[in-house]
Amino acid sequence: AGPHGFTEILYALTSQGNNNGSAFAGFGGNTVFYNVIGGIDMLVGRFGIMIPVLALAGTLAAKQVVPASAGTFRTDNPMFVVLLLGVILIVGGLTFFPAVSLGPLVEQLSHGRFF
Fold first, then answer.
1. Residue 96's CB: how many other CB atoms inside 10 A?
2. How far apart, in Å, are the Cα atoms of 19 and each of 9, 10, 39, 42?
3. Transmembrane stretches, by residue range (predicted)?
């Protein structure tokens, strides 16, 4: 219940969407509702990503190759790898940061009034 319960639900659904399936110890996820939502979450987590990626690959495969010029960003050096990983980590972290930090912060500020 309360902000801790929100964090438990968010963690469980995020874990199911990534095909892991772990949850907090206090989360009672063996109900019809959470089983159905978890199954839908796993389907969307798998096929909801796979289908757009395959569509993007199909459109990129159909494009013509453009010769490199002075303004072309090279993708065969370590700088590209560092920038790509940095963007992935920053965007991924910023996506979940507000929701993941909301539960513990509200729980701390409420001083245990929710439980």
1. 12
2. 15, 14, 10, 6
3. 43-62, 82-106
Distance CA(17)–CA(19), nearest Å, equals 5
Structure tokens at 43: 């389907």
Report the alpha-carbon distance of residue 22 to residue 69 in Å, rounded: 48
**Token couple for 27:** 């989360």
46 vs 11, 16, 22, 52, 115, CA distance in Å? 17, 10, 17, 11, 36
Which residue has 């569509």 as its token pair? 55
- Whether 27 and 12 have beta carbons less than 8 Å apart is answered as yes
